[in-house]
């Protein structure tokens, strides 16, 4: 003989229990956040060693970088702008 079981469409928790679950969840999140933040240690940078700095290529780069920026600004960008427009675009094969 089959047994009929009625399953409710929606099970609703009483308001008191719903509030209790929200409070527990909030407390758990707060405790987890506090535990993770209090367990972190401060980061420290390495001390600067003058003997380790001053690589010759870095010194050359300090001098050449501004020169490259000036060349890019005064020569290459205007040249690209000229070649970007017709009839130069067809002549040089520039594609958009």
Features:
3 helices, 96 residues, elongated, mainly alpha
Question: What does this entry look like structurally?
Answer:
The chain is mainly alpha-helical and 96 residues long. Helices cover 60% and strands 0% of the residues. It is built from three helices and no strands. The longest helix is centred in the C-terminal third of the chain and has 29 residues, at 56-84. It is elongated, with a radius of gyration of 35 Å. The termini are far apart. The model has no long low-confidence stretch (mean pLDDT 82).
Write the layout of secondary structure elements.
Elements: H1 15-38, H2 56-84, H3 88-92
- Helix and strand succession? HHH
N-end to C-end Cα span = 78 Å
Number of helices: 3
Strand content: under 5%
Mean pLDDT, rounded to whole units? 82
Helix content: 55-70%
The coarse overall form would be elongated
Structural class estimated from helices and strands: mainly alpha
Rounded radius of gyration (Å): 35 Å
Largest sheet: none
Briefly say what this structure is:
This protein has 96 residues and is mostly helical.
